[in-house]
Design goal:
Dihydrodipicolinate Reductase, domain 2, Alpha-Beta Plaits, 3 domains, six-stranded parallel sheet, binds NADP nicotinamide-adenine-dinucleotide phosphate, binds L-homoserine
């Protein structure tokens, strides 16, 4: 059987959104048209770009294609509809409209996929179309397809990574320049790394949505944003960063999705984490992203690259457009949702990790023993302790072996109620160390 000549066939593509990512997708569709046609097996013709403000000049976008009627474009029956507007509504309704009209859908919308991926997958199934969302996690980095396809024969035990470029930029600057959070945030905003409203990034929502998507694919379980326990970086101080540095660690905002020790469930969490400087994730600087996948047969696999930006994200979107187009040409569909494992998503208390605890205590006989006893009472084993005298008070830094998160929380509560403990200055989880 001969392959159909790409020149004989044309597929239509409609863009919902012509902003940072959408305009780059339009540009690459035009500039790489011949190569994309050869790869997809059909020429890809852009039929429209829906925006809010049609009067704005958009580099890379043919003004004749711009429309403010997103609903009509979504319902127009293009072969592939690409949603790059962001947010939950009207993006979700437009995607459902497009699928009902027989269009395959490509989206970069992590918020929507994490919040209501089930509805989107069900609609794709019902209408016999594809749903791809590679660009929704870690921008340019091929990550979802490897999880969904390349690692489909393995058993993933853990996914661990830096999936938010804005916060990694801020934490890197804090580490390298000793600067304060607020100071670096202002600089990141001035440079365009952080948005005017940085809440979704700095409070951890963005990373939590990505963690939910990664966990769902890695563990064949439906995981929603509300299943993820998350904390952002707004409370990370220059002192925390300096203390981490003194101990040979760096602070990163990590997304972690892992099987519970008895494999009965999953824990998915996002929080500032101390990582040894020797760990590969410690070397991921600035706005870059990196994700470690630990699988039974493969061992550790690391993915690294640009997690944001118009052109890098457009690269992932284009990959999905070509995949959806190829499927159209060959009359097949890509893989659908895989949630057969249906694992329970457990609260963070079930997580097992190590901790760093920084205390200010009274410097008198018996205090160290009492503090150590509080850890022992909750079955948390101490790995090492460092004490610095500060006159009447002492600074005590305790690092633990692995323990259950719930046990550590109970320990901290007990420490807070002790007379000799003046304040709990900092508590942070530690990842990436070998051993127990
Ligand atoms: P953006 O620059 O704000 O662009 C959004 C586009 O959608 C704009 O063209 C906007 O029109 C249009 N739009 C929004 N609401 C609309 C509505 N109700 N009707 C018609 N058009 C509407 O956003 P972006 O940065 O390109 O991000 C797009 C998606 O990609 C989001 O889901 C985002 O999370 C995801 N993503 C972005 C990046 C990144 O680095 N930027 C990385 C990974 C994933 P106007 O131009 O007229 O305002
Ligand atoms: N705001 C995100 C980040 C990029 O800083 O990584 C879009 O996913």
């Amino acid at each position: 059987m001969s392959t159909p000549d790409a020149a004989d066939r044309e597929l239509t593509v409609a863009l919902l959104g012509g902003g940072t990512v959408g305009s780059q997708v339009a540009r690459i569709l035009r500039e790489n048209a011949d190569d994309l046609a050869a790869r997809a097996g059909a020429r890809l013709r852009l039929t429209g770009v829906a925006v809010r403000d049609a009067g704005r000049a958009r580099e890379g976008v043919d003004p004749d294609l711009v429309t403010t009627d997103a609903a009509a474009l979504a319902a127009g029956g293009a072969d592939v509809v690409v949603e790059l507007m962001g947010g939950i509504e009207p993006a979700r309704s437009l995607i459902l409209t497009a699928m009902r009209a027989g269009s395959s859908v490509v989206t970069a919308n992590k918020a929507l996929v994490a919040e209501d991926g089930a509805t989107l997958h069900a609609a794709a199934e019902e209408n016999g179309v594809d749903l791809y969302y590679e660009a929704s996690v870690a921008g340019a980095i091929p990550l979802l397809r490897p999880l969904r396809e390349s690692l489909a024969g393995d058993k993933v035990r853990r996914v661990l990574g830096i999936v938010n470029g804005t916060t990694n930029f801020i934490l890197t600057k804090m580490d390298e320049e000793g600067a304060d959070y607020a100071e670096v945030l202002a600089e990141a905003q001035a440079l365009g790394y952080a948005e005017a409203d940085p809440t979704a990034d700095v409070e951890g929502h963005d990373a939590a949505a990505k963690a939910a998507i990664l966990a769902g694919l890695a563990f064949h379980t439906r995981v929603r944003l509300s299943d993820v326990t998350f904390e952002g970086i707004t409370r990370v101080s220059a002192q925390d960063v300096a203390a981490a540095r003194d101990m040979g660690f760096v602070i990163k905002l990590l997304a972690v999705a892992e099987l519970s020790p008895d494999e009965s469930g999953l824990v998915v969490r996002v929080h500032p984490t101390m990582v040894p400087r020797t760990h590969p994730l410690a070397g991921v600087r600035g706005a870059f992203n990196a994700v470690f996948v630990e699988a039974e047969a493969a061992g550790q696999v690391m993915f690294y690259g640009r997690g944001a930006g118009g052109a890098p994200t457009a690269s992932a979107v284009l990959g999905d457009i070509v995949a959806a187009a190829r499927n159209r040409v060959s009359g097949t569909r890509g893989p659908g949702e895989s949630t057969y494992a249906d694992l329970e998503v457990l609260p963070i208390g079930a997580a097992v990790t190590r901790y760093y605890v920084n205390l200010h205590v009274a410097d008198r006989p018996g205090v160290l023993a009492a503090v150590a006893q509080a850890f022992a009472d909750h079955d948390v084993s101490i790995q090492n302790v460092r004490q610095d005298g500060k006159g009447e008070e002492a600074g005590l830094v305790v690092r633990t072996h692995t323990a259950r998160d719930s046990a550590l929380s109970a320990t901290i509560e007990a420490l807070r109620s002790m007379d000799a403990v003046r304040s709990v200055v900092g508590v942070m989880r530690v990842e990436g160390e070998e051993g127990r």
